[in-house]
Prior knowledge:
Blueprint: H1 6-14, H2 21-39, H3 42-45, E1 53-56, H4 63-74, E2 78-82, H5 98-118, H6 120-135, H7 162-177, E3 185-191, H8 213-220, E4 225-231, H9 232-247, H10 250-264, E5 266-270, H11 288-300, E6 303-306, E7 309-312, E8 317-322, H12 334-338, E9 342-345, H13 351-359, H14 365-374, E10 379-382, H15 384-400, H16 407-416, H17 418-423, E11 431-434, H18 436-448, H19 450-456
Amino acid sequence: MKDLKPGEIVRELDKYIIGQKNAKKSVAIALRNRWRRQQVDKDLQDEIAPKNIILIGPTGVGKTEIARRLANLTDSPFYKVEASKFTEVGYVGRDVESMIRDLVELTVTHLKARQQEAVREKATRIAEERILDILLPPVSSGSRPISNSVDVIAAGEGDKESEAASSTREKLRMMLQEGKLDSRQIDLEVADKSSPMVEIFSNAGIEEMGINIRDMLGNLMPKNTKRRKVKIKEALKLVAQEEATHLVDMDQVKAEAIALVEQSGIIFIDEIDKIAGKDKSHGPDVSKEGVQRDLLPIVEGSSVPTKYGIVKTDHILFIASGAFHVSKPSDLIPELQGRFPIRVELHSLGADDFVRILTEPKNALVLQYLALLRTEGIEIAFTEDAVEKIAALAVEVNASTENIGARRLHTLMEKLLEDILFDAPDIEEKKIVIDAVFVEKQLTNIVGNEDLTRFIL
């Protein structure tokens, strides 16, 4: 984090997101302030609250992508949730605390996988020894039992003394490492995952319970195993995975996950405008304000119980977004407005932006289709006027139907290349040029017919 200056954060975001300088600047400052906070005196650290952000703009302009790329850039725990999925406490549905539990769960899973990767080499060595023990069981009572190794190593070696047995084991090890035994089958004890599941129903659903009942009962019940015949190559993977799990210190993983979430967590609350509104409504919308009031303590800072421990939300960064076509940010309850002091408006995208989106980012749409068709041995090339025509048509369709921003480009590109993608395995012409004439031929009739446009594009 100390190496990421705000200007560098913006430049990294520029590689994937076109335009929206104000939004990038705001999130870059918020991210840098996290690092600054960790450098001040301990007494003052708790007093410095994160400056939460509301991104205001129509769909498809880059709101979600900014938050996601920001989290990837710093390797921060990140979770995206739609505000419209929450209900007020007392209603059937998800409560707002579930997003903290989900963020912790994702972080634990991520850290556990990282720890398993770190011990993979050691786990593989242990797995080799276990497989060798099955192939050539240790000497007991002065003699070695005959095992699966009888038909692997020359007959009679099982009767040799300790030195010969050691030599046999090393020969087996070399054959194992060279893959010469991969296709042989051995009997292996594996965990039986077919045990009956215990389900508990409540008005909030099992995922909302503070204690994971399945895990608790799973720890009380004995572990069931079954004997399977598996190939040695598969057995090595199974045993290595099991050993890697045993080598990971889960207490350390849980503690690290909670610390990471509390200090570096980012929660992206999409569609926050769907729970805003001044009108006192009845029926399905009756709990809108209730969701806001439930959300308030989480954003302000509170302690949320999870199955891994208590998580304090005081320093989690919340980034909210919404189109705010019908409602306005000022329609949120005043207390919640105060917890999102930074508001940034993202502008709608025009033809020039679409041209850049198609060609400039690292994951540009044109580059994606080039890579996909290259797998079939086909090289396609887009002329400059073709890209400009696609961008112009995207603007036209967005204006005549719903404005879904850059997402319209995905629909147009798929329709444009539909025939090529379908016939690609059988096309003899391996070099195809996409020009403005080709784009006109494929798309203009659809764009010109308003009824077709609404259904197809």
